[in-house]
Structures are given as structure tokens and as C-alpha cells.
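Co-fold these.
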Amino acid sequence: MAMDAADIERLIKEGLPDAEVTIQDLKGDGDHYAATVVSSAFAGKTRVQQHQLVYQALQGRMGNELHALALQTSAPDGA
Amino acid sequence: MSDNPVNDRIQSEIDENSVVLFMKGNPMMPQCGFSAAITQVLTQMEVKFKGIDVLADDELRQGIKEFSSWPTIPQLYVKGDFVGGCDIVREMYENGELKELLDNKGVEYAS
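Predicted complex below.
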């Protein structure tokens, strides 16, 4: 099983509509990606909570179809 | 005791051990790069920790994900609190937050 970058970006944006998302395919196997996600939904949240929001947006695929997603999350400046 | 023995076991492990790493493999032989990465950070800092191999117990492997609402392994706990997975621990290590956390929680480390 694998996912492509466009699907990951689409799901994250569906879950976090204002998110700016950049995806990097680390190994070209559809299983190992890095992503940076910037969203106002992260404001005031711990890093764990921010990552959990992204995992929720991925609707259970994290740890299943998607083996590895190295995440960098932040709120927009001034949020 | 609740009716969820896996949760009870997880809770007792993180209550009884200052630093617990739920991982794939064991500290001497991690079975995945992410588990190895956190093991290396903790070893480098000479933090005493208990490594628990979730590959040896499928119920634990699923239960830990529900326990923390975190979908992947490894998972690091310090003084009963979930700290994060590989990305977060590595980021905290690189920016000094991990030392700060260990200081605040009274956990010894070397460097």
C-alpha cells in the first residue's frame, strides 16, 4: 500500500482548510514523506496536538498506508 | 483496575519507569530507523530508559496507539507524560527543549 503526495496534500487541506502544505517524497516508494504544514488551527497548541490534527486529517492512513511522514508544523506568524 | 488490561499495563509501565520508550525492537537492537533514532538520542544523553518492544505483543502495539491517540511507533514517555514520536523528540533534542523537559521533570542525563 502507498499514497501519493497529491492525496496527502488534499487530505490535509480538507481537514485544515487554511493550511499551507509542502510535501517532500523522501524515498520515492510512496511510503516515506516529509511535510511542512502551516495553519492557524495550530495556534496555541503543543507540537503533539498539532501533529495529531494532521493525523486526524489523514483519516487513519498514518501508520497504515502511510508508513512515515516526517512532520514540521507551525502556526502562521502572528497567529 | 479498568476493563482494559492493555491500558492498565501501559499506565503501570509509565508510572513505574521515569523514561519509557515504546519501540520496535529493543534498545540494543532497534528494528526500525525511527526507534533507533530515539534510542540514539537517549543513549547519547545517557538517559536511563526502559525500552518496550511492541513487536513482541500485537495487543500492546495497537493499544499504545489508542492510549496516546498517536498512530505510530516509537512513542516516548517521560514521568508518565507522552512526549512524542521520532520527529518531535529529534526536534526537541536539536533545539534544547528535551534537556529543558528532563530538567523540569527531574530526570538525570549526562550531556
